[in-house]
Amino acid sequence: MLTADVRLLGDAERAAVERVLDRAPYAAAPVAEQVAAHGLEWWRAEARVFGYGPRRQLESVCWLGANVIPVEATPPAVAAFADLASINPRQCSSIVGPADAVLGFWDRVAPVWGNAREVRPCQPLLAVDAMYTEEVGVSPLADRGEHRYRQRIVDLVHARRAYARFIDGRVVFKAELAVVTKHTAQVQGVWVDPAYRGRGLAVTGMAAVVRDALRRVAPTVSLYVNDFNEPARRAYARPGFREVGTFATVLF
Length: 252
Known about the structure:
Layout: E1 6-8, H1 14-22, H2 29-38, H3 42-45, E2 48-52, E3 60-64, E4 67-71, H4 75-85, E5 94-98, H5 99-113, E6 118-128, H6 146-158, E7 162-167, E8 170-180, E9 185-192, H7 201-216, E10 221-224, H8 230-237, E11 242-251
Parallel strand pairs: 4-5, 9-10
Antiparallel strand pairs: 1-2, 2-3, 3-4, 5-11, 6-10, 6-11, 7-8, 8-9
Helix pairs in contact: 1-2, 4-5, 7-8
């Protein structure tokens, strides 16, 4: 049951939603891209977007689709969103976003949704605005996902959002701009061929990605990384990425 403070949002409240998203230009990027492309009607966005707060003063939003993404979610908003989501069995593949909100949400839904495959409680959120698969833990080809994964890569290539370096016809570095908004281009899928690791390819590759994305796509570049992945964090620091927040991810 929805409370007076939680409600399903539609296009009539798009301006209010965009104001909330603009307050979190990096953390809200995945939601902002979808809202810009499809609006808020669930049948177009393939997700439902719920809001928390008085109708004239929207405080927080939560994307409920293939992923659950809380945005600017205060503790009362997290509790309200989680109680709403736990009415039904889990359908999402992950919960991702600012750590406090994600972990608070997970604490409340875990008794209903069951065990997670993995909880990553500390993922530094990084951004840069000037130059100075191992991440997910499961193959994108699993569970008959090969066609969807290949189509996603084709779409990114056509949109000029995929990067790769080849040596002797072999891909040795790749990255994608998985999310693009008016505020930021969010990098995902960074990978270096194991045979070429330790040679600085991640540093030069990410520098090239940042340089092109800042010139052509968005005013900032952002990403999030597992806190325990020290080689990646060093590689991201060299092109100038700085920590602007902390994410957490619950994977199913």
